Amino acid sequence: MMNRVIPEPLQKFYNLTLTDPLFAAEGLDLDNTRWALEDLRKLANDLEREYRKQYWWFCFRYPFVETLHPIRFLERFIDCERSRRLFLYNPIMPNAQDLIRSYQKTLAALGECARAHREALIAAKNAEPFPENAIFHFISESFSFSDMLQLVGLIIKNLSPLLQKALAWTEEQLGENAIISERYGPIFYECSQFDEKPATHQFYFYVMKYRASEKLRPFIVMADRYYFIDIKKFFESASLAHLRITWKTLYELGHKYEMRSGTQPYVALDLGYWADLATIVDTKWRRPVLNGRAVVSQRSSMLDFLLRGLNYANRHFLIRQQVALRDHNIINPVFGLFVTRSYISLYYLLHNKSVWRLHDVELSKNTFSFYGDFCKTIDEVAADVSEEELKILIKGIRQFKGFHELYRKAFG
After folding, report:
1. Which residue range(s) make up the domain with 106?
2. What gap in Å lies between CA 367 and CA 195, rounded to an integer?
3. pLDDT of 304 over the 90 cut
4. Fewer Cβ within 10 Å of end Cβ, the chain: N or C?
5. How far apart are CA 250 and CA 406, in angstroms?
6. H or E stretch at 206
7. Residue 146 lies in a domain
């Protein structure tokens, strides 16, 4: 690729477009794709013409060209890729603005198509006399209607403007307190740690360091779920004294909620998903030249980063215990320390097949339910606070005016 002079205001956007664009298909033949989409549009119309003979009202309400396949999204996607290539070839402000408009149009089309498909899918089910739990069997696979609906729901959830804002606010907070040296994602990964049964979640993986430190560590964000603690309810119901002290300052300030990350290491017994995400990052983006088969089997190629992440979490835990002992002569029960802060699944390398030989034994995937009824979803909190308050919660409640003074007074 020839050397280009990138205008200063566009350098960051150019680098992001080059390394982590929003919608892209490097190497795709755009003309051939356009012809295939034209054929797909014709095919959808032909199918609808036949189905109208028995499902006239359904076809009238849910035209196949708008509901059966996401044709409009794919068309926008092709336009977006064309705009991306033009901007990379000629990085000037008009081309950058055109690419941003293409991003917006493509994102909107994706959401509209997914919602239209879900509505048509439900209507199609109601038009047929099959049971709610019907299973569809194929040659080697089977799935239920609810599986299909869940998948469409995940596509729509991925587009949630609120979750997109939440991720942006999280990154903004990171940038204010740390230097993000590497950013990877989105990673769509199925795990059992956060739900009653395996579910796919969207993750981002950051390699970062705090400004006063030279040590890099990981920061993992689950971008499709945020946990918020009802402070008043939790504080007034907490039976353990050390928990009451932890939340005392926030409670006295009158704050309603504080965010808790689902990827904190003390939340789950099995932290194998940390190792899995790190392995995906290393083999796909950071160092694809490594022996992929060995790296995937051992899942320890970024163990140094993961250990630093655990050290960081327990360093903060240590400070809190020191303050609680100094000011209140109390400490977290030793049982709680061994249960929630020993992180045995990572420290004993249970994710590494060269160490863990009991391949027929399934580790527990359940999360620790510390908060139970005190936990709120992002949608529930958004309905109770302003957008600016929600932004502060996600960036860190300690940014509220007056918190630092009271926090230092209470905890030092």
Report:
1. 8-128
2. 8
3. no
4. N
5. 9
6. strand 199-210
7. no
